[in-house]
Design a protein that fits this description.
Order of helices and strands: HEEHEEEEHEH
Helix content: 10-25%
Distance between the termini: 165 Å
Strand order of the largest sheet: 1-2-5-4-3
Structural class: alpha/beta
Radius of gyration: 46 Å
Shape: elongated
Mean pLDDT: 75
Largest sheet: 5 strands, mixed
Low-confidence stretches: 43-80
Number of helices: 4
């Protein structure tokens, strides 16, 4: 016979009581429980910019604008190799001028070699760029040398004047080897004699050429022998009155050439 009394059934589950609510649930004891997740590293742990701007390779570190070769380094307006040091070396025998960003140093011919040697050995202007002459009538020729300081990125114009009646100047070949051909060209074009030059012979002009073509008093005979390719004379273009005398080309004296028509 079936027993309907639940109290007599020892295998029946005991119904939960309203007062049996657990207050402290048991902690899991399973061996397969997962460890707590690791906290991701913060930017300070990954090697982010935690250093200060004063560290190596920072704007204040090695190789910055305050290092060697900077605007305060060699060859600048405040460093070694400035016009100030040239003035201290030569005193009142030198004149320094600024024009269009270039510094020009003027000395007498007696200080010419000393100036070239000083800027090369003391100021590191080791690169010789060019040398040429300038006709400065009526009394002199100017000899100009352009030199460059590769490390500092600066350049200088060095200049001296020789008298027109006796244009002699010591050669600079022993200081700058590149001056060799430049002095030869200046010799044949202006007639300036560079004393001590190893081979002061014409460089560009043909054998037997007479005169110095870059002097301002040199007569350009070829401009008279050939038709002048400039503007037409008055009367030849159909405008204005005809000219009484044909104008001579530039470089030809008024008393030289074919007679007036």
């Amino acid at each position: 016979m079936t027993n309907n009394n639940p109290g007599d059934d020892h295998n029946a589950p005991t119904p939960p009581s309203n007062n049996d609510t657990p207050t402290n649930p048991p902690e899991p004891t399973s061996s397969t429980s997962q460890p707590p997740a690791e906290t991701p590293p913060t930017p300070l742990e990954i090697g982010t910019p935690t250093g200060t701007p004063s560290g190596t390779d920072t704007p204040s570190g090695t190789g910055t604008p305050t290092g060697t070769g900077s605007p305060t380094g060699i060859g600048t307006s405040t460093g070694i190799g400035t016009p100030t040091s040239i003035s201290e070396h030569f005193g009142d025998r030198v004149q320094i001028s600024e024009s269009y960003g270039d510094t020009t140093i003027d000395v007498a011919p007696t200080d010419w070699l000393d100036l070239l040697t000083y800027v090369r050995d003391t100021l590191d202007f080791a690169f010789f760029d060019w040398l040429t002459g300038v006709d400065v009538p009526p009394d002199s020729f100017a000899i100009v040398v352009h030199v460059y300081n590769p490390a500092a990125g600066r350049r200088l114009l060095l200049r001296t004047h020789v008298p027109r009646e006796n244009p002699h100047l010591p050669t600079a070949v022993d200081i700058y080897r590149g001056a060799n051909w430049h002095e030869r060209e200046t010799y044949e074009m202006f007639g300036v004699i560079f004393d001590g030059h190893p081979n002061l012979v014409p460089l560009l002009l043909p054998d037997g050429f007479e005169g110095h073509p870059l002097r301002k008093d040199f007569i350009l005979a070829a401009r008279v022998a050939k038709p002048w390719p400039g503007a037409k004379e008055p009367g030849e273009s159909g405008h204005g009155a005809p000219s009484r005398r044909k104008t001579l080309p530039p470089g030809v004296p008024a008393d030289w050439g074919p007679p007036d028509a």
